[in-house]
Amino acid sequence: MSVAITQHKTGRSTVAKGIRQISRASIEARILAAAESVFAESGFSGATTAEIAKRTGVPKANLHYYFKTKEDLYRQVLQGILELWLGTGDQILPEIDPAQALSHYIAAKMELARQRPLASRVFANEIIHGAPQISDFLQDELRDWVDRKAEVVDGWIAAGKMKPVDARHLFFMIWANTQTYADFAVQIAAVLGRSQLLPEDYDKAGRQLAEIVLQGCGLKMPAQWPPAE
Amino acid sequence: MSVAITQHKTGRSTVAKGIRQISRASIEARILAAAESVFAESGFSGATTAEIAKRTGVPKANLHYYFKTKEDLYRQVLQGILELWLGTGDQILPEIDPAQALSHYIAAKMELARQRPLASRVFANEIIHGAPQISDFLQDELRDWVDRKAEVVDGWIAAGKMKPVDARHLFFMIWANTQTYADFAVQIAAVLGRSQLLPEDYDKAGRQLAEIVLQGCGLKMPAQWPPAE
DNA sequence: AAAAAACTTGATCAAACGGTCAAGAATCGT
DNA sequence: ACGATTCTTGACCGTTTGATCAAGTTTTTT
Under an 8 A CB cutoff, do B213 and A212 touch? Predict the structure, then answer.
């Protein structure tokens, strides 16, 4: 019985603690989402904690309860974005067909630009202003990532599967092109005479980028576009 | 004699006025240069008039004598940058060979990224944050520019001089790739394991971009790279 | 030479902002 | 049930910043 009670108690408190954790995680997530949109719109300096609090729907003091400083909040927003960055490119492996791998990567990056343009803009802003918070990430994780992927590409080239190109600049090309449709969306929309970019714009951009990149690497477009999961 | 005196006076005053204008233009140019670097580093919100004044070497109050407000100064910095933007691409004309025209354009844009990275960053920052100051430019001048150039490209395609590609997305591709080496220089340098980008990096990037773009358009690289003026 | 115009600059101000605090409300552990 | 912990919030504070001003200096005009 004491065991039962203890179990009951333990069960109750565990559930309660679980609920509190979920609730805490939930409000933190809401703050982070609001912060991402404000940082994307205004940059780090232009963003105000008051605006982030307002979009979250909590008083400013409450926001500072969950995130000590604005910089702290900004770092955590960036953290989530960096995980997105390295999360793509899992198909770039020696045993995969290069045309398949590259078109898959391009499609995934373009999809990210379409679905998470705010994240892309926060990232871009951070880099443009000298990457004060993420220079370690760039020099360590990202550089390693590129080194590994470049080895794969070089392997394809050595095996005669594609034309010789500089693998690193190839990645820069794919990054630049896909991110430009998130970061510079207003410019592209203006030139296209639209108020905002449409799904078909991203689709066309991704397809043409894949066509030109693959062609430039001496590869054939896969029959299916966008490539299957 | 009165004529001579008058001439002398007029001469003196004209020269004096000329000197004053030159002097005024000179200090304004120094302020604009300092402002460009501060806006590039910190964005519009992050930039302070105190820092701009400090880099110019004048008291803050003096800066406000020449430029009424920070926004005013920012607009004039942008103005100069927009003129750079439209100043390239003069070789994209119906009668020019497409391979020649495109490789020339790519080289010119890459050269701009190398020589005016601050300008590129100020521009990028403005666009990322919604282009509050230059949406008119994007919708009018830039859109017209692209419309005209796209017609030229479409003409080349119709004449069978190059493979059919979407001309607008082709320009977006060139812009994205060249500007990325200015805007994201710290990221690219980090991935390449350098402290900063070297001339040879820009050179390699430009050459590979031209190779891939031209190949993608079914064109041959010109014998000479970078192309002659 | 003297009045007018243009320029310089230290001091100052009001607004905005990041962050704190204390007091209270809600929830949790036992 | 009740003390302890966690959370909420309006009020408040020190700093930063864009901008102004007034007093003075230099240059220009006549």
Answer: yes
Tell me whether the omega of the peptide bond preceding residue B132 falls within 30 degrees of 0, making it cis.
no
Establish if A226 belongs to a structural domain: no
Long-range CB pairs of B195-198 (<8 Å, 24+ gap) are B197/B114
d(CA A51, CA A167): 42
CA atom of A21 to C1′ atom of D2, Å: 24
Domain match, B84 and B52 both? no
Would you state the pLDDT for residue B24?
78
Question: What one-letter code names the amino acid at B209?
Answer: L
List all nucleotides in chain D with at least one atom under 7 A from a protein Cβ: 6-11, 16-22, 27-30
Asked if B116 and B32 sit in the same domain, the reply is: no
Provide the residue range defining the domain that includes B12: 2-67
3-state secondary structure A68-94: CCHHHHHHHHHHHHHHHHHCCCCCCCC
Tokens of B15: 């020269």
Count of A-B CB contacts under 8 Å: 169
Q: What's the farthest any 2 CA atoms get from each other in chain A?
A: 74
pLDDT in tens, B78-123: 999 999 989 999 999 999 999 999 999 999 999 999 999 999 999 9
List, for residues A119-173, the tens digit of each pLDDT value.
Answer: 999 999 999 999 999 999 999 999 999 999 999 999 999 999 999 999 999 999 9
At a CB cut-off of 8 Å and minimum separation 6, what does A99 contact?
Answer: A214, A219, A220, A221, A222
Residue B43: partners with Cβ closer than 8 Å, 6 or more residues away: A43, A45, A46, A125, A128, A129, B125, B129
